[in-house]
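To: structure desk
From: M.T.
Subject: fold request, one chain
Message: Could you run this one when you get a chance? Sequence is below, nothing fancy, just the single chain.
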Amino acid sequence: MITGKVLSVSLSAERGPKKPVAEIKLDQKGVMGDVHAGTQRPVSIIDSSHITRFKNITEARDTRFGEFAENITTEGLQDIEFKIFDLIKIGEVLLEVTQVGKPFHDQFRELGNYVMPRVGIFCRVKQGGTIKAEDNIEVIQKEYKSIVITLSDRASRGEYEDKSGPRIIELLESYLKKIKVRYSIDHKIIPDDKTELKKLLEISKKDQYDIVITTGGTGIGPRDITVETVQQMLDKEIPGIMEMIRLKYGQEKPNALLSRGVAGVMQNSLVYTLPGSVKAVQEYMAEIVKTLQHLIYMLHGIDIH
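Reply: Done. Structure tokens follow.
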């Protein structure tokens, strides 16, 4: 857990620099009385180290708290590479990072706009309360939690080496490294049993896994129970992903059209059911990762363009 301190709090009823105040009160819309409350970036934060660095580089005049259009000026957070969904706890207040930096427009010439677009942190309020100078800060860094579930009677008995599950892990890990997020990936091998699968899905839902991927059991055989079991747990289906994959690969290999795999949302988890072959896994994952991060943002109400 990483800690820091609040140096000052500021607000303004109009756009531009903000004015330091003794304390700010936050509700679900943001800083009460501030112009940005209720917007896409309701609470803004900048660490004093970035202000100091800016002034040293530009030889700018001394500035006051709030002049960089920040609601909260902090100390001690300079070495943190913030990511979307990181949590910032200040007393009773809990903030969630929704954006790091923002689009820069040349016509903005006031002092703050040279810094906030690059290093400013923008948050939404998960739990409201009051913030004042000298309050301590705790940073809880987001970890993308994933689980890969292999369904195979033979693999679960040790009679057959599971190759599809490990391949999904390799491809998912490569993608998560590429987008530079913190992550953990669990792997379970179970028989083609709907009771065991449902139990794992319930655990994934309760523990708020971000990504759940199954492999195996998407055909029409008597032991293929994956799709029916998963569908019962989904709050919403995302049919277009699997339809596109079946169509794309089925044009050359008609057998690809026989997979009944589905994708959807289970509370806060994105769920994908993949076939059992390594080749199919590679084809499916190549398409799934194209929209994966965007879907996670959508699921949590983050508007990123």
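Reply (cont.): The two ends are 30 Å apart (CA to CA). Let me know if you need anything else for the meeting.
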